[in-house]
Write a structure and sequence with these properties.
By secondary structure, the protein is mainly β. Helix content is 9%, strand content 48%. The strands form 4 sheets. Strands 1, 2, 3, 4, 5, 6, 7, 8, 11, 12, 15, 16, 17 and 21 form a 14-stranded mixed β-sheet that branches. Strands 18, 19, 20, 22 and 23 form a 5-stranded antiparallel β-sheet that branches. The chain has a two-stranded antiparallel sheet with strand order 9-10. Strand 6 and strand 7 form a beta hairpin. This is Polymerase delta-interacting protein 2. Keywords: DNA damage, DNA repair, Mitochondrion, Nucleus, Phosphoprotein, Transit peptide. It is found in: Mitochondrion matrix; Nucleus. One of its GO terms (biological process) is DNA repair.
C-alpha cells in the first residue's frame, strides 16, 4: 500500500475576514445597509477586512441585511479596491441552491455552489452516551466512536482570481480522477473545485452575469435573471454530476480536536487499477487543520497507520505534509491539503497523529480521527470528469 502526497490546497489568507464577517453577518436587519471595505495585508496577499459600522440610513451602528464588500488586487502600482457584491442573509435552516454566490468564511475566496451533498459527519468532539460506545477497528488509537449525523456540504467552483491568494506556497484544492487507461496510473486533476461545509458559506449576490472566473463556469451554469439565485444548472452540469457521482460523492466527514487544533478529514474513493495480476484500490483524502486557539503553532511531522482488509498494517512517518510545515496562528489559523493512498484490498481504514510544535520548542500530538476507506464495487464505468 502507498500514500502519495500529491495535491496541496489553500492556506488561510484572511483571518480578520472570518472574525469580522461572521460577527456582523449574524446581525441581520432588513432596514439598514453597511459597507465592508478591505484594507490591504501585505503579509498574506489577500486583504484583512475591517468594518465601518455606520449605517447609511440612520447613521448608527448596527446589524444589516445587505453589506457591500470589496476585494483588492496586488499590483506593482498599488492595491485597487473592487466591488464584489452585496451580502445576503446566512441560511440558518435549509440549504443553498445551485448558483449561489458565496465568500468562504475560512479561506476568503469567492465561489459558486454547483450542487449539495448530504454527508455523515462524525464529530469526535461530541461525547456519545455510554450505551452507544462501540469498540474501535483493530489497531486504532482508542478514542471514542461516535454516530454520524447528516450535514450539508457543497461542491463548488473557486474563482481563479483568488487562487494565488489562498494557495500561498501550496496548490489550490482540486478534484482528482484516475486515468481510464488500463496501463496507466496517472491522476487527472480539475483545479478550482472544492467541498464546502454549510457553515463555511457567506452568501452574496452580484449584478454581473459572469461573476466567477473559472473555465467550467459557463459550461456548467447559465444566467437567468428570473431565478434566485440568477444562475441555473446547464444540462452539462447535471450529466457531469450523474456520470461521476461515485468519484464526486462526499459521504463521510470525520472531525476531532486536540488542544485547540481541529482536524477534519474527508475521504473519496477514486477507483481500481489492475497491476501484476492484482487489484489496486485508490482513495483521495482531504484534510483541514484549524487552530481554534490563540497560540502560534507549527506542524512538524505526520504519523500514519494504514490498515488493509487484507490484514496488513503499515506505518508511515515523515516531515510535514505535502512537503510543507505550515504555521497556524490567530492571523492564519487554517491549512488544507489533499493526498492519496492505495490498498490491495477493497477497504481499510487510516488514523494517526500530527506532531505540533509550540513557539517555546515543546511538542504535542494532534489526533487524526480514524476514517474508513470503502470502495464502490458496483461502479464499473471510469470517471469522465477530466475530459473537461
Amino acid at each position: 500500500m502507498r500514500v502519495r502526497e500529491r495535491v496541496g490546497a489553500g492556506k488561510m489568507a484572511a483571518c480578520a475576514l472570518r472574525r469580522g464577517l461572521l460577527n456582523t453577518v449574524s446581525k441581520y436587519n432588513k432596514k439598514h445597509t453597511q459597507r465592508l471595505l478591505s484594507v490591504a495585508d501585505t503579509s498574506s496577499g489577500f486583504e484583512a477586512y475591517k468594518l465601518r459600522v455606520q449605517c447609511r440610513v440612520c447613521g448608527l451602528s448596527g446589524g444589516v441585511q445587505q453589506r457591500r464588500f470589496m476585494s483588492s488586487r496586488n499590483r506593482p502600482e498599488g492595491k485597487i479596491l473592487e466591488t464584489v457584491g452585496v451580502f445576503e442573509a446566512v441560511k440558518q435552516h435549509g440549504k443553498y441552491e445551485t448558483g449561489q454566490l458565496f465568500l468562504h468564511s475560512v479561506f476568503g475566496y469567492r465561489g459558486i455552489v454547483l450542487f449539495p451533498w448530504h454527508a455523515r459527519l462524525y464529530d469526535r468532539d461530541i461525547t456519545p452516551p455510554l450505551s452507544d460506545n462501540k469498540p474501535e477497528p483493530p489497531g486504532t488509537h482508542g478514542s471514542k466512536e461516535v454516530k454520524g449525523k447528516t450535514h450539508t456540504y457543497y461542491q463548488v467552483l473557486i474563482d481563479t482570481r483568488d487562487c494565488p491568494h489562498i494557495s500561498q506556497r501550496s496548490q489550490t484544492e482540486a478534484v482528482t480522477f484516475l486515468a481510464n487507461h488500463d496501463d496507466s496510473r496517472a491522476l487527472y486533476a480539475i483545479p478550482g473545485l472544492d467541498y464546502v461545509s454549510h457553515e463555511d458559506i457567506l452568501p452574496y449576490n452580484s449584478t454581473e452575469q459572469v461573476p466567477i472566473q473559472h473555465e467550467l463556469f459557463e459550461r456548467f451554469l447559465m444566467y437567468n435573471p428570473t431565478k434566485s439565485p440568477p444562475f441555473t444548472a446547464r444540462d452539462t452540469l447535471k450529466a457531469w454530476q450523474e456520470k461521476n457521482h461515485p468519484w464526486l460523492e462526499l459521504s463521510d466527514v470525520h472531525r476531532e480536536t486536540t488542544e485547540n487544533i481541529r482536524v477534519t478529514v474527508i475521504p473519496f474513493y477514486m477507483g481500481m487499477r489492475e497491476a501484476q495480476n492484482s487489484h489496486v484500490y485508490w482513495w483521495r483524502y482531504c484534510i483541514r487543520l484549524e487552530n481554534l486557539g490563540n497560540e502560534v503553532v507549527q506542524l512538524r511531522e505526520r504519523h500514519w497507520r494504514i490498515f488493509s482488509l487484507s490484514g496488513t498494517l503499515e506505518t508511515v512517518r515523515g516531515r510535514g505534509v505535502v512537503g510543507r510545515e505550515p504555521v497556524l496562528s490567530k492571523e492564519q489559523p487554517a491549512f488544507q491539503y489533499s493526498s492519496h493512498v492505495s490498498l490491495q484490498a477493497p477497504s481499510g481504514h487510516m488514523w494517526g497523529t500530527f506532531r505540533i510544535e509550540r513557539t517555546d520548542g515543546s511538542h504535542f500530538d494532534v489526533r487524526i480521527p480514524p476514517f474508513s476507506l470503502e470502495s464502490n464495487k458496483d461502479d464499473k464505468a471510469p470517471p469522465a470528469g477530466y475530459t473537461f
